[in-house]
Structures are given as structure tokens and as C-alpha cells.
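Entry 12.
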Amino acid sequence: MNDQIPGSGHAPGHAPEPGSGPVSDDDGPVPGYLDYARVGPLAPEAVAASAAAIALARRAGPAELDRLFALSDAARASAARLLGAQPHEIALVPSTSNGLFTAAAALQGPGTVLVPRGEFPANVYPWLRFAGRGGPDVRLVEPDGHRRISADLLRRHLTPEVTALTVSAVDSLTGHLAPLGALKEILGPDRLLIVDAIQGLGAVPLETDAADVLVSGGQKWLRAGWGAALLLIRDRCAERLLPGLGGWAGVTEPFAERHPAPALPGAAAHLATNPDFPAAAALGAAVDGLLAQGGPAAVGDRIRATLAELLDRARRAGAEVLLDGLGERERAGIGTFRLPGHDPAAVHRTLEAAGVITTRRGEWIRLSPHLPTGTVAADLLAQALRPLAGSSRATLPTALPAPPVSPVPPLPKALPSLPSDTPLTPLSPVTPLSPVTPLNSVNPLNPPSQEPTCPTT
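Predicted 3D structure (C-alpha cells):
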């Protein structure tokens, strides 16, 4: 592969050294931060690498540019180690959404792509937008309960026209870990498995070898911030994906006098332009930091242990855990609960006032810890929930006191009779009652209000 960055005019050099020795995380998130599934506060390695890259861009001499442009190569090499891939199978794109749109533009019809209903919309709209514009048709698949996808569900929907399945590696609400290996086995070699991995990559081990195409941004569990995402396109399916969004950065001769020029080999064919180099540096450094801490297996064990303790504290307060029956390896770093009888918005505000940072999704409160999460987070959660335990907005006293009973006067032995010529007053017509809306129904035109949130997963 030609590793020169299109448009740079410089060969790759060496990435800048962020500094010697371990990087301190003293300025990390607050102790009760349990919202990595929404935004992962930057890892210290990512902060240092981004600052070093910005310093290179500020000087912008030939030597500095050589080093700056090499950062994306270093990031791709680090990602290749993480994903068990070759560097040329990986490209750096601006975001998870951009990577999924890239995949949707590359997968040309005819055929049908299966999309589990309930997927986060970043993994829905790319396929809808390209259906009828050269892309395959879209079939939304109803999930098995709260599990978005299972091997049995896929098997029931696998018809001859299906060419691909796109799925989140980890469901952003329940934390359910999709069985990627089993899904790919059912799909077989002739159908593509496309994976949105942002809620799992960096949190737990993923069966990344099963994915034909995989996309993941760095702003959540990788703790690398915004601006760079990994796009993996395996060699085994590269010829089936056209460079639909590939631009000048994806061709072999970007400065040729005449175009079009041949596409670059590998995932680089799908690049629209150069990456954000400081963001690429941060992403590469964050991946290196993850690997240095033992990789997804070691990190995942610690995250799952922390999450198990948090969910246990919530149960002691009377909480109901969503998909509480998941096996140890079926749940990633996300756990979700609710307190029956309590206003979820009020619970969310109570937690935030106590320094416990979470995300509310409707009636559910989502917990998502990471390595920096200490034991104090579980204590803060328990303290915040303790006043709510055993109380409920819908709870009434077990027995209402009976009202005092006044003595009933005795009835007369004979009721007085009216004279036969006494006119009777006609009864007034009865006004019909207005229909009563059931308590458990929701007017679709006036849904229940929810606190405004940043539209992230």
C-alpha cells in the first residue's frame, strides 16, 4: 500500500513523543462520573498526544509536517493491533456516523440489508438514505424483546435477497452484547456483517474478527475525544464495496492533471479527505494506552466488576434492572435501572445533585463506568438512592382510618303518603360522562416530557 498521506507531499515520519513516564489522570472525571456510554472524558494519553500534534501544526515546518502526517499512520497501526487487522484495512474517518454512511454508500444493490428495529439512529439513517439511490433495500427487523438481535432472530429473517446485516456490537440502552461470531456464522461468507462498535470498543472484548466492516468513534469508551473514528474494511470483502464517498484522498494520483484516477488499495479508497491529524493522534494514543493496560480483556473484567457492584447497590434500593438475567459475558459496560413508583426525571436529578452523573432514557437510568471509576462511585450511588428506597410517589397508607359513624335515626313505622293530585317534578336529563383516558395510555400527539439531552448515545 502507498502509505503517503494524499495531499501532504511528505513521506511518513515519526509521531511526536507525548512525554516520558506515565501520564497522570489527576484531572480526570469527578468521582461519581458514570456516563462513559455518552461521553468518555479524555484519557491523559489522548490529551498529551493532541497537544503535541497541535504544537507541530502551529510550527508547520517541513520536519514538523512530516511528523504530523505520520500520526494517522501510527494511529492506523495501533488500531490494527487492537482489531486484529492489517493497517491497510483501516482508514480514519471523522465519526461513527460518517463511517456508517461510507459503508452504506459503498454497498450497492440489489439486495436487502437487515437493520434491527431499535438500533441507535446513527445505524439506521445511512441505509434508509441510500435505499433507492443505488443501495440495497432496508428491512427493519423486530427485536427479541430487549435483545436487539440474536442468532435465532437472524436465522428466521435470512431470506435469499439478504446481502448484509448491520448491528450495534453493544446496545446503547441495555448493554446487551451482540453475538457477532454466531451472527457471522449464520450469514456465511457471501453476506456482510457490518458493525457499529462505538459502545463496546475499549470497554469489553468484541468478536471483531467476525466483522466484515466495523466502525467506531473515539469519544466514548476509547476516551479519545471527537474528530476521528476507525473504519475497518476487511480484504475479504473489499472488492464488493465501491468507494461511494471516496474523494481525492482515496486515489493513487491526487495531483494528476486528469481525473478520475485509480482508487487506493484497502480502506483508504473510501477516504473523502485527509483526517484531522490532532484527533488521529489522540485516537492512536488512546488505543496504545488501552493496550498497555492489558487490552480489552483486562479492561473489560474491571469495568464489568465495577458495573456489577453498581447494579447491586441499585437493587438494594429497590431498583429493577433492565435485562437482569443477562449472563456475565452477555453484558458489556452498560447497565440500566428504574425505581418503580418514582418519577425517573426526579431520580435522575437526585443522582446529579449527589454528584452521580448518568444518562436518563425515558423511565430508565443508565450506568456506564470505566477504569477511572473508583469505589466511591458506588457509595455515592447508594447514598443518593437510600432516601428513595421504600418510598414511592404512588404509595398510599396501608389502612386508611375509618370516618366516625353518626347514629342513624330510626325510620318511621309508616312513610307519609302524598296526595293523589300532587304533581310530580320531572327529572332533569342526565349529562353523559366524558370518556376517561386510561392511566396507562399515552397520547401519541402529546408524549410525556423528557429532560433535554445532547443527542448522543
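Annotation: The two ends are 35 Å apart (CA to CA). The chain is about 30% helix and 10% strand.
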